[in-house]
Amino acid sequence: MCGRYGLNHPDPVLADWYRASFIPELKPRYNIAPTMEILAVRDTDSGRMGSMMRWGLIPYWLKDMKKLPVLNNARAETVAEKPTFRQSFRQRRCLIPASGFFEWKTEGRRKQPYFISSRDGTPFSFAGLWETWDSDTGETKESCVIITTECNALMQPIHDRMPVILSQDTWDTWLDPNLRRDEILLSLLKPFDADRMQAWPVTPAVGKVVNQGEELFRPLISEQEGGLFDMS
């Protein structure tokens, strides 16, 4: 799964990285959680652009927001089949930039958070789907979901799922709104190359959404190694 991530790459860097004509002004965010507004990149008639969307898909057919299910992630294995996702999968795909993501590893009676990022410092590009929801009162809301897949060798000791991370050479295919062939799209939804990733334990403070700051990305050093954080 993917339930928490961060993005601290500046918007000009992201605009260049994605060859986007527009990326909204961003502030560094070190602890992004579901229901928050997040950056999504998609291809439009005006070129490649970034937009802020709610993390947590709101199906276009939903009538009552009080009955909104939890739709932060979509499984790659079923995304083309499930009624909630299949139309977005064929028509409304996006990239969700991340400087790295968090996952929790069960260690005895506690869970230790890990931060996972790219070895070369470039942003991850999660495979996402987006949707537009219109209420009866005329309110319009754009939302998105992150697709997950089975873990790779690096993630296997930490968790059995991970977000689908798309390489640059697949972006044009994934974002093409005219491409609707399931077999081509599904072939992209595979675990990212483990050799291009790195992971380390971080402070449990990331477990609380109110906690922000670059220290959440830093490697946790145990007391035995003279570190700053209490592992007990």
TrEMBL record:
Pfam families recorded: SRAP
Keyword Protease: yes
Keywords: Covalent protein-DNA linkage, DNA damage, DNA-binding, Hydrolase, Lyase, Protease
Coiled coil location: none
InterPro entries assigned: SRAP (IPR003738), SRAP-like (IPR036590)
Enzyme superclass (EC): hydrolase
Keyword Transmembrane (UniProt): no
SUPFAM superfamilies: BB1717-like
EC assignment: 3.4.-.-
UniProt GO BP: protein-DNA covalent cross-linking repair; proteolysis
Molecular function terms, GO-annotated: lyase activity; peptidase activity; single-stranded DNA binding
UniProt record similarity statement: Belongs to the SOS response-associated peptidase family.
Protein's recorded name: Abasic site processing protein
Taxonomic source organism: Nitrosospira multiformis
Record lineage: Bacteria, Pseudomonadati, Pseudomonadota, Betaproteobacteria, Nitrosomonadales
